[in-house]
Design goal:
Helices cover 52% and strands 19% of the residues. It is an alpha+beta fold. A hairpin with a 7-residue loop joins strand 4 (183-191) and strand 5. Helix 14 crosses helix 15. The chain is flat, with a radius of gyration of 47 Å.
Length: 599
């Protein structure tokens, strides 16, 4: 079989060999990827199982802790009753030859019934009965079920004996269902002192089945087993009902005690476990899941995966063979044409083919080369045109020195004529034009110069509007030489004046205040104009919408420029509302190093 395959492969054309090798490589790749996916699925199932076990264990421990706390509190409430206190002071209180014997028994029973009335464990049927023993002699019992007194007394005495034999020097303990398969016993034994021969024991029988039904409803995972164990490995409660009261396998139990989670092997099978101790007593909740469950979950989707891979390989083999057989000539012509294009011969053309699909590819190649030729020609022409336009623009530019010389001449004429107002207006206009014409040569300027530009503008507008416009400028000393971006303040001031004059306000006031706050420069421009709804102004980045007003576009451009220079924490802060004026705050850092005057 191997020789015939090698012979077939050698006799096949080169393009067919390539197809076969590619398909085999694809198959191998799919097998590797499939194996990796199976491993990932197993790992994910493993993690999900552990997560479910942990959630179930935490929830179950919380509920069981609460139940045992109710039971413990019930026993404590009975032990702190008045009659028990009298017995501690007088251990002969329950002697049967005492005249008050029956009265004392009755008082103790009434106190016990009173405690049970308010006990949550009694209300939820966790407590089956309470039995009180004097030494090992029964005094009384209170039962919620129809259990014979003899059964109650025998179980209570046995539980009390186990506590004294197996838990020396301890007066409180929990006894597994070894005495009665249906009950977990909580025993509280009291003595007047360590030397007293008499002891009073309160034995509370907990309904193990009610406890099991409570925690079994939280997690019904397949193969899941739950155990409630004590420090010696006795099973207090379990989802494996036949093991209640038995002792857990010693070797496995010792392994489990060494860690809260892990795995162990039992009867030739691997198991995952998660354990957590109860805070109310010395018991531990153990949750066990067979590892085979995780493997079964992982393998559920693998047959479908292999079927798809097999079908895909067969399809690839058939399609590859057909395409390679019919497209060999096309590939050869395509290689030749591509080499010509590589030599910058964009006039090369693919021939026509009888196969419409292959012919369409040839036409696409021809269209591509034609488009490339057109694009190259258009790009070259555009470059030449741009150079000519730049040259023409340079030739048509007016020399700014000529403009300033003319303004200076007119300014001198006004001074000579004694018109101080016209002189100052021309000086302010010249300053504004100088700032605008040379703004492209220097991005940064001093704060004093920037304030001066704004003052030039406000002075010119004051001359225009006379009493309708007032302005006030203040700057904290020591900030004059701080560097800020050119034309940062003037556009905002211009915006305040324009908005103020558009309304019906008799007198527009514009205030420019510059202060230093911590490590930031704060420039505040306020006006009493008509104001606007700030929700209509989006200062976020991106292109400026042409639908916005010129003033809003100016605000957005200024904000974007400052955030690009200094970061999102800086820029414009706008406070405005219709009819309440507008306050624009410019926040710029003071401690930036390495700023340059050059663009």
């Amino acid at each position: 079989m191997k020789k015939s395959f090698d012979s077939l492969l050698r006799q096949a054309p080169v393009h067919n060999r390539v197809v076969i090798i590619c398909v085999c490589f694809t198959l191998l790749s799919m097998l590797v990827i499939g194996g990796y996916l199976v491993m990932v699925m197993y790992s994910k199932a493993y993690e999900n199982t552990y997560e479910k076990m942990q959630i179930y264990t935490d929830k179950t421990v919380q509920n069981i802790d609460q139940s045992f706390s109710f039971i413990t509190n019930t026993g404590l409430a009975v032990a702190t009753g008045g009659t028990v206190g009298h017995w501690i002071n007088n251990t002969r209180l329950f002697d049967d030859d005492s005249s008050a014997y029956y009265t004392n028994i009755n008082n103790l029973k009434n106190e016990t019934n009173h405690v049970l009335t308010y006990s949550n464990a009694w209300k939820t049927n966790y407590i089956s009965y309470i039995c009180i023993l004097l030494n090992d002699d029964p005094l009384l019992y209170v039962s919620a079920n129809q259990i014979t007194p003899n059964t109650i007394y025998q179980s209570a005495v046995s539980a009390n004996q186990i506590l004294k034999e197996n838990q020396e020097q301890q007066f409180i303990g929990d006894i597994p269902p070894v005495v009665d398969n249906n009950q977990i016993f909580h025993v509280r034994r009291m003595q007047r002192d360590f030397n007293s021969p008499d002891s009073l024991s309160i034995v509370i029988a907990t309904n193990e089945k009610a406890l099991y039904q409570d925690y079994s409803r939280y997690y019904g995972g397949e193969g899941n087993s739950t155990y409630l164990l004590d420090e010696e490995g006795y099973i207090f409660s379990s989802s494996e009902r036949d093991q209640v009261g038995e002792k857990f396998e010693e070797d496995i139990f010792q392994e489990i005690k060494s860690g809260s989670n892990g795995n162990f092997r039992r009867d030739g099978k691997n198991y995952l476990y998660f354990s957590k101790p109860l805070s109310s007593n010395s018991l531990t909740l153990l949750n066990v899941v067979p590892e085979q469950v995780i493997i079964d979950q992982t393998l559920e989707g693998t047959p479908f995966l292999f079927v798809i891979a097999g079908i895909l390989c067969i399809v690839l083999l058939a399609v590859g063979y057909i395409v390679s057989f019919k497209s060999t000539s096309f590939i050869k012509d395509l290689v030749i044409c591509m080499n010509e294009v590589k030599k910058k011969n964009y006039d090369v053309k693919m021939p026509h083919y009888s196969n419409s699909a292959v012919d369409a590819l040839g036409m696409y190649f021809n269209d591509m080369t034609a488009a490339m030729k057109t694009l190259i020609n258009d790009t070259y022409k555009a470059k030449i045109m741009r150079q000519e336009m730049e040259l023409e623009f340079i030739q048509q530019q007016m020399n700014p020195h000529f403009l300033f010389n003319v303004l200076s001449t007119v300014q001198i004429k006004a001074k000579m004529c004694g018109d101080e107002t016209v002189y100052q207006m021309l000086a302010s206009l010249s300053g504004l034009l100088r700032a605008s014409l040379y703004s492209g040569k220097s991005m940064m300027t001093s704060l004093s110069e920037e304030v001066q530009y704004a003052e030039f503008y406000l002075y010119l507008q004051k001359q225009r509007y006379q009493d309708r416009l007032d302005y006030h400028i203040s700057m904290e000393p020591g900030l004059e030489r701080v560097r800020i971006p050119r034309l940062t303040i003037e556009p905002i001031v211009e915006n305040s004046v324009l908005h103020g004059m558009e309304g019906d306000i008799e007198r527009v006031c514009v205030e420019l205040a510059i202060t230093k706050e911590e490590k930031c420069l704060k420039i505040r421009i306020a006006d009493n104009g008509r104001g606007f709804d700030t929700k209509q102004l989006d200062l976020s980045g991106g292109e400026v919408s042409l639908e916005g007003t010129r003033e809003k576009v100016g605000l957005k451009n200024t904000h974007n420029r400052l955030t690009l220079l200094y970061g999102e924490a800086y820029g414009l802060r706008i406070h405005s509302a219709p009819g309440e004026g507008t306050v624009v705050e410019i926040v710029i850092p003071l401690d930036r190093k390495g700023e340059s005057d050059e663009v």
